[in-house]
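Quick review question:
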């Protein structure tokens, strides 16, 4: 009798425990679900890649080729979803090799399968609100690219979720200081400190995810259906940028600053930089765009304006924003892993 009662208590306890676990799993899936955007026109899905010559691929007036220096160059035009599909079709091999390199590097840095599994769900939770802070235009472009992503990595998440989350990798690197993923320096000089008085911009790029990841950077020239045409330095599968310039002569370089550990994602810095290039023609317009976006890490954004012949720094953090507009004719930003500072030298 006593055994029977003990067995019933055990079974009921087990049932309640399993029900709670199931409820938590359902709640987690509900809170971290990602809803892809719905394109109004799927005609781009039927576009076909042409190879008019060795080493070049085209779709309409868009193309991809490797130049004499080993850098990939790409030109893209069209509407958001169309651009994404074309990027995916032209650079499918680069997208897949880039993701493989990224996953391989993560596996080296986090060799434990258990911790990688935990990291996956941590990122799901951390990025649970990510899509709310990304413009619909960019979500459509990412969706188009995701059609060409490698399904072998579906254990991490579906193609769209993975590519969306990868855009926050630079920002998440802020929270993992021991990995030394982020840290850059930039400078601008103009007037008497430039050989011809025009604006000159330079930067040192220190985002490192292994040699394999760095092999196939893409110089992408994009002519969107809205905003300005621009050029960015990027990777297969990414529409954001850490360096770029638009047709109005506006340049952007982003420099990771020391940040507090964030608790959830907002707008990735690389997508903010992309938006500035696409829609800003002056430093003031760039600042206005940065003001309207919430970010989850701190960043020093060096903005150069060829038309205004000067540069400025937008200091952006999760808690505020400021514009550093120097009167001097040289401006530098140096970022280390422990601190950030800006300085002017006449």
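Suggested answer, residue by residue:
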């Amino acid at each position: 009798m006593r055994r029977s009662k003990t067995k019933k208590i055990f079974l009921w306890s087990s049932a309640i425990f399993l029900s709670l676990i199931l409820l938590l799993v359902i709640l987690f899936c509900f809170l971290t679900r990602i809803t892809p955007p719905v394109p109004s026109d799927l005609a781009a899905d039927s576009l076909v890649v042409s190879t008019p010559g060795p080493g070049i691929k085209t779709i309409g007036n868009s193309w991809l080729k490797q130049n004499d220096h080993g850098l990939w160059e790409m030109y893209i035009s069209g509407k958001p979803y169309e651009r994404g599909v074309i990027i995916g079709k032209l650079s499918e091999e680069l997208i897949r090799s880039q993701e493989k390199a990224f996953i391989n590097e993560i596996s080296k840095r986090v060799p434990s399968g258990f911790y990688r599994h935990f990291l996956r769900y941590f990122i799901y939770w951390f990025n649970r609100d990510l899509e709310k802070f990304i413009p619909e235009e960019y979500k459509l472009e990412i969706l188009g690219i995701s059609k060409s992503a490698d399904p072998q990595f579906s254990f991490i998440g579906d193609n769209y979720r993975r590519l969306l989350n990868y855009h926050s990798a630079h920002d998440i690197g802020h929270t993992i200081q021991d990995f030394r993923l982020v840290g850059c320096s930039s400078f601008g000089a103009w007037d008497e400190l430039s050989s011809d008085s025009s604006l000159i911009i330079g930067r040192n790029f220190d985002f490192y995810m292994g040699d394999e990841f760095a092999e196939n950077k893409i110089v992408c020239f994009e002519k969107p259906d809205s905003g300005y045409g621009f050029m960015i330095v990027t990777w297969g599968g990414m529409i954001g940028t850490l360096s770029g310039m638009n047709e109005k002569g506006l340049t952007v370089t982003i420099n990771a600053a020391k940040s507090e550990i964030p608790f959830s994602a907002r707008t990735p810095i690389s997508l903010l930089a992309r938006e500035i290039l696409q829609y800003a023609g002056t430093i003031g317009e760039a600042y206005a765009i940065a003001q309207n976006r919430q970010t989850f890490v701190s960043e020093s954004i060096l903005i150069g304006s060829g038309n205004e012949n000067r540069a400025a720094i937008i200091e952006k953090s999760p808690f505020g924003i400021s514009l550093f507009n120097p009167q001097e004719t040289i401006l530098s930003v140096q970022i280390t892993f422990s601190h950030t500072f800006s300085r002017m030298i006449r």
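Why it works: The mean pLDDT is 81. The first strand starts at residue 50 and ends at 53.
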